[in-house]
Specification:
By secondary structure, the chain is α/β, with parallel strands linked by helices. The chain has 8 helices and 8 strands. Belongs to the SsuE family. Isf subfamily.
Length: 197
């Protein structure tokens, strides 16, 4: 692998042994590797990430988690949908991260559900990433009715697999995007002028 390759990490926000989130993220990471990236799956089952306490923001393996996220050029967040939102384990992991890990980084979103389209989880993650000044890919991947989309750990639904793979590819393509590019249009933008001033 090229030492200058884009590095993509995926955080699997599920603790279930038979989770569909992890294999879906692996498909996205395989596509990122095919696009020339180095990749890493952060499996939160393998880390000690206690409930977030602002008085102890380096508890357990929180520093290791933050370091691994910080070293990435692009981040994929994967979650099952629970009660219309994303998982508590992913929320806890994100609470241990901040601007150092996410600001101006490219983030791709993936959500899995046992039933209907997991739009709530995707929308809520998008809000969190905006709060961290991340650049969230417009393309997102959803795996509704997950039990019918997989055979074992293999994603067999062609349309869903293509969306998931596109997420991995786009994470690499846009990993080093300049969120506020210097251009004629940006110089004509009042908000951009105020930022520059």
């Amino acid at each position: 692998m090229d030492e200058n390759a884009v590095h993509v990490v995926a955080i699997a926000g599920s603790l279930r042994e038979e989770s569909y989130t992890r294999p879906a993220l692996r498909h996205a990471l395989d596509a990122a590797e095919a696009a020339g990236a180095s990749t890493e799956l952060i499996d939160l089952r393998e880390l000690e990430i206690p409930l977030f306490d602002a008085d102890d923001d380096e508890a357990g393996d929180a520093s290791e988690l933050a370091r691994r996220v910080r070293e990435a050029e692009a981040i994929l967040l994967g979650t099952p949908m629970y009660h219309g939102s994303y998982s508590s384990v992913l929320k806890t992991a994100l609470d241990y991260c901040g601007f150092d890990e996410f600001e101006n980084k490219t983030v791709g979103l993936l959500a899995v559900s046992g039933g209907s389209f997991p739009i709530g989880a995707l929308d809520h993650l998008r809000v969190v990433c905006r709060a961290l000044d991340a650049w969230v890919l417009p393309h997102q991947a959803a795996v509704p009715n997950a039990h019918s989309r997989f055979e074992g750990r293999e994603l067999v639904d062609e349309d869903v697999r293509q969306r998931v793979e596109t997420l991995g590819t786009r994470a690499v393509q846009f990993a080093n995007i300049e969120p506020d590019p210097d251009s004629f249009e940006s110089r004509e933008n009042v908000g951009a002028d105020e930022r520059a001033g």
